[in-house]
Amino acid sequence: VTFWVVVPAAGVGSRMQADRPKQYLALAGRTVMEQTLQVFLDHPGLKGLTVSLAAEDPYWPGLSCSHDPRIWRADGGRERADSVLNALALLRAKGAEALDWVLVHDAARPNLAASDLQHLLASLADDPLGGLLAVPARDTLKRAGEDGRVEATVDRSVIWHALTPQMFRLGTLHDALAGALEAGATVTDEASAIEWAGGHPRLVEGRADNLKITRPEDLHWLAQRWQS
Ligand code: CTP
Ligand code: MG
Questions:
Q1: How far is the CA of 126 from the centre of ligand 2 (A)?
Q2: Positions of the site: Positions MEP for the nucleophilic attack (predicted)?
């Protein structure tokens, strides 16, 4: 399977409370961003990769991968979905076609295993729509009432955590994101836009350690794992 990649990286990382956006913090001798991109750059099916960056991003030009001819830079947008849409438009300009596969992956998710990437690609290559890496819920789940007491225990067997990459055809993804944004729908990932448009993305079980760095303890956890 051949594919394009979009990495939205225009967030400010407010929950991380660091001196720079979390994708530019250090992890195992490189930046989080460089670690994130490596698994895609190592894959023979990669046709090209677009990173969406904030307008005044002073960090990207300093990374060695900023000179990689397979990587292009798009403008970040107000919301993550805007950043992804800008990147899809750039891919079109670079020759990507509506039926080509696009994988969207968070810049702040540096621990995607090559085997999970391969599993996603293999699982969805013949799928009519596409889907996403996800992990089944592990803990017992409670629905809270307004008084902060348990109202009910939720059936865990049908609940999954959505991860990235999320893999869809370029044209389908573009139209779903544009439509959902236009309608003011809540779009927190690519799959939610596809769902808004009436699609049912396939859940592909991945590894739970493909975590998104959101708070300081996430980075500490990954750094420790990578050390040993
Ligand atoms: N992102 C983006 N454009 C935006 C907002 C987010 O490209 N307007 C990217 C982030 O850079 C990140 C990914 O989307 O790689 C997931 O978003 P999130 O984890 O929420 O990152 P931040 O928005 O940077 O963090 P926070 O919400 O804590 O400010
Ligand atoms: Mg955010």
A1: 32
A2: 156, 212
